[in-house]
Known about the structure:
The protein has about 450 residues and is an alpha/beta fold. It has helices spanning about 20-30, 60-65, 75-85, 100-110, 125-130, 160-170, 195-205, 215-225, 235-245, 270-285, 295-310, 310-330, 350, 360-375, 380-385, 410-425, and strands at about 45, 90-95, 115-120, 135-140, 175-180, 210-215, 250-255, 265-270, 345, 375, 380, 400-405, 435-440, 450-455.
Amino acid sequence: MKTIIEPFRIKAVEPIRMTHLGERRQILARAHYNLFAIRSRDVMIDLLTDSGVAAMSGDQWAAIMRGDESYAGSPSFTRFEAAVKALMPFKHVIPTHQGRAAEAILFSLLGGAGRIIPSNTHFDTTRGNIEATGAEALDLPCSENGDPNSLALFKGDMDIERLKSLLEREGARVPCVMLTITNNAGGGQPASLANIRAVAELAHAFGKPFIIDGCRFAENAWFIKVRERGQSERSIPDIVRDVFACADGMTMSAKKDAFANIGGWLALNDDALAAEARTRLILTEGFPTYGGLAGRDLDAIAQGLAEIVDEDYLRYRVRVNEYVTERLASAGVPVVRPAGGHAVFLDAGRLLPHIPPLEYPGQALAVALYETGGVRGCEIGSVMFGRRPDGSEAPAAMELVRLAMPRRVYTQSHADYLIEVILAVHAERERLRGFRIVEQPLRLRHFTAKFEPLS
Ligand SMILES: *Cc1c(COP(=O)(O)O)cnc(C)c1O
């Protein structure tokens, strides 16, 4: 059969509250046009993020009941640690309440003024945590990444030549080399096993630890399996193990490819660094056998890791975004292609060429999708990345709107509705106007900034 069905049945449902256009206009004004300020009950299709919003399986809910809340030495930790190590063979696994807590601990040890931390593209919290220590977060994506028309299969790759020249010129200032898989901020695009190995080799040749931000490791492994020469016959867990065998450590958000609603971890091979990280963990998160989590969360993650590497799931997962992307592209809507693993990325820069970058075309498009159809997406452009640490503004490399797909939550008809909303906004695109920011914090401003529409 050609139809790829959702590989699950639905046992519990959450009703969607229908809203109408006039209501949504009022809601937008009250939220100062920041979609993060809208209550979720006022959203019909919530694609703000794929983080922490997965539908857990019956087995995960059962695991929640198995959770043991002992302060030290809980069997939940043992199960969690074994599940992580089965896929990611690191010596030390340190649970944290989210990915960003793992980043904060790692960069409190490796960051600091004058240092440079390169990656294919840093995610926003990674960048925030690096910059908070005074270090520089440097993005070195491959050249195809910046070209929304390029159909290159591994647009999440890192630019090896630029990494090499950085290490030659500024090696003393680089404490580690990072790689984000898949490359979230760069369009949810995968990095190839060949590129991951090349980055690792280069880092190691210069004596630098190689750290993977592995939030979407399973989606990345699926892309390696179906797109990379010689990988198609291999199992997903085998590919995952190969990827992490190259690395000296990882940061992880279990809210992504572990089907959990909360959680994360920092994994390291270096004993001394891990000991320092555990000391920081006790200070800011909790005892090393629970980190910032309840025992039941550790069990939900352990079960989620067993489920996320399922090929039927990954085939369906990636297909949803391909389907939406193909339908939009064939109707002339500018989208990032090929489709990303966890999201559809609309190219607001090309869709709204009459809105200059610092009038935030991505914000204008995201607001219009909510107004028109109650769909909540997320600007990934000059609102998110346009403010420098010194407070000045510069346009981001791309003006995107990310429509992130929660795992196992929405169905085919939701995808069809989404396409209809986007096409309706596209038909009216010339009427859309930009925004100005009237209130904002210094860092991570997209979460709390207030906007005013330009007339
Ligand atoms: C979500 C995410 C993080 C941060 O994880 P949280 O659990 O949200 O703190 C880091 N890197 C990437 C690539 C992510 O997608």
